[in-house]
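Lab notebook page, bench 4
Experiment: in silico fold of construct C2
Operator: M.H.
Input chain length: 163 residues
Purpose: comparison with the prior construct
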Amino acid sequence: MSIIYIQFFCAFALIATICFVVLWLRKSQRDLQAVSLELERCKLTLEISEHVGRFGSWHMNAGTRVVRWSDYIFDMHERRHSLGHPPLENAIDYYHRADRLMAQSAVEKALKKGEDFEFRARIITEQGNEIPVLSRGTCQIDKDGSVLGVFGCFIDLSAPEDR
């Protein structure tokens, strides 16, 4: 008879545990949906801000040296999204020939020494248009002092009548 009570107790405990897990999973799913909606709101706010403020953001992974551009940076460079995010060398090639060495030097210092940078330069778009920009980069450094990547932005400095 005591075995039946033990089996009943174990079954009850198992059912209670399953109910708890199901309720916890439902709450986690609601929380995840709320976070997802907030992330989408933040992304939309950033996109609107970029177009109104005429700036774009980028991030370069130090390991892959691929530069991930925001939509506005693609638009600023008149680069098709289907071409994907450019490797560092291709991104540097968008700078005017006279500004390219300065840009490349700033990025290499950031990658090697963790130095942030800011400079004015000109980019040449896919359509051959010249746009004056302010370029700023901030290093992402791990706990050991190694550079993981560089976050940055471009600000379009062209006059409204030139846009």
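Observations: The CA atoms of residues 3 and 9 lie 10 Å apart. The longest helix spans residues 2-53.
Next step: discuss at group meeting.
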